[in-house]
Amino acid sequence: MRCALPALAAALLMSCAPPAAKMPDTPGPSASPSLAHRMLRVYLTGYAYHDNSPARSSTICCPVLHKSAGGNGTYDDPITAAVPGSGATMEWPPGTRFYLPGIRRYVIVEDSGAGRTPAGVEGHLDVWVGGKGAPADEVDAEMDRITGDVTAELSPPRGRPVIKGPLFAP
């Protein structure tokens, strides 16, 4: 029984020790992503006059700079982009700007309704291509040309190289 007494004493001492500090809960993912300037990978697609909702329109849900989808790709007149979600669940809030070096255009979130973001990228931008009055197959070819995983600059500064004008011009 000699071993039982030291074990009992140790157990009593341990019961007087302060409880282990509780680790703070790890915060969950933010409802909206940080808008701090950074480079990221996004899935880029295009939408156009003939496949917008409503069809054959340039209607947007969340005007910031434009009353309807448009823009020429400059910092002061970025091209409209749609993102997944709607209202408070939009992936990026209206007014968020991006620079897309692959197409040398600035874009701004002003619409919703883009498809879900695929795994492996940090967002989905569905960029307005235009196409009013053009054959749908020609506009679709332009949308196919820009579709894919691309680099995007979130909250970019002015002064990036730009090809001024719409993505599709008949």
Name the helix and strand elements from N-terminus to C-terminus, one letter apiece.
Answer: HEEEEEHE
* CATH architect. name of the domain at 38-154: Beta Barrel
> Which term fits the overall shape?
globular
The CATH topology of the domain at 38-154 is Barwin-like endoglucanases
Poorly predicted sequence stretches spanning 5 or more consecutive residues: 1-31
Mean pLDDT figure: 85
Q: In oligomeric terms, what are we looking at?
A: single chain
Helix content: 10-25%
Radius of gyration: 26 Å
Number of helical regions: 2
Strand order of the largest sheet: 1-5-2-4-3-6
CATH class of the domain at 38-154: Mainly Beta
Class by SSE composition: alpha/beta
What composes the largest sheet? 6 strands, mixed, barrel
How far is the first residue's CA from the last residue's CA? 96 Å
How much β-strand is present in the residues?
15-25%
Give the beta-strand count. Answer: 6
